[in-house]
Amino acid sequence: MTRRRILQEGQSYTFRSYFEMPYEADEILAEFGYTLVRKRLDLPRSSRELERLDELRQRIDESLPLVSLSSETARRETLVAPALLEVARYCQCQVRIEYPLFVNNWLKGNLDYFLKHHQRLLVVEAKNDDLTRGFTQLAVELIAISEVEEGDIFYGSVTIGDAWRFGRLEKINQQILQDISLYRIPDDLEDLIRILVGIVD
Predict the structure, then answer these.
(1) pLDDT band for position 114 (50/70/90)?
(2) CA 115-83-124 angle, 5° bins
(3) Is the Cβ–Cβ distance between 196 and 185 less than 8 Å?
(4) Which of these, 180, 178, 179, 169, lies nearest to 32 by C-alpha position?
(5) Where are the domains of the chain?
(6) Is the pLDDT score of 151 beyond 60?
(7) 119 pLDDT exceeds 90?
(8) Which end of the chain has fewer CB atoms at under 10 Å, N or C?
(9) Is 199 exposed, middle or buried (0-12, 13-18, 19+ CB in 10 A)?
(10) What is the CATH number of domain 28-200?
(11) Whole-number Cα distances in Å, 16 to 85, 125, 132
């Protein structure tokens, strides 16, 4: 039995297109030769001293009662950007925001956040409300990054601001691993920052 084709030759798709498709993530990833595995991931975690973590937690705790998180922009500015800027400060790396990437007509668009430190990198896709379809978009972005960056393992995260889910691309196995765990801000802030720093550093 032949697998039905989702992507059409001659058509153009942005990363956002994959978020909007009605298909399951495993069906979309199969178009690129990847399989999807959902499991609990053993993610890198930094053991270094996070000397400004309390300050970040206090800033977020004070901001949450004052901001309505009903839009993607509000979530990004209140929860996502402060966390990633803190990670960049610990790792001394650049945060690229709305980072343009073009591989081909099926792999193109902007990455919401892209952090790179030497050969370690992290892609973060921020969404307003849908982690499931957001993960599909993130997975395709990881495939695109794996086409232009050196390495066999690539990490990413999809977030709706107060909840984060991680994924790992394994190029040799042609697998995308989706973590079944969720990390929440502010409750899991330390664990989340340790994972983000562990990935990038």
Answers:
(1) very high
(2) 40
(3) no
(4) 169
(5) 28-200
(6) yes
(7) no
(8) N
(9) buried
(10) 3.90.1570
(11) 24, 10, 14
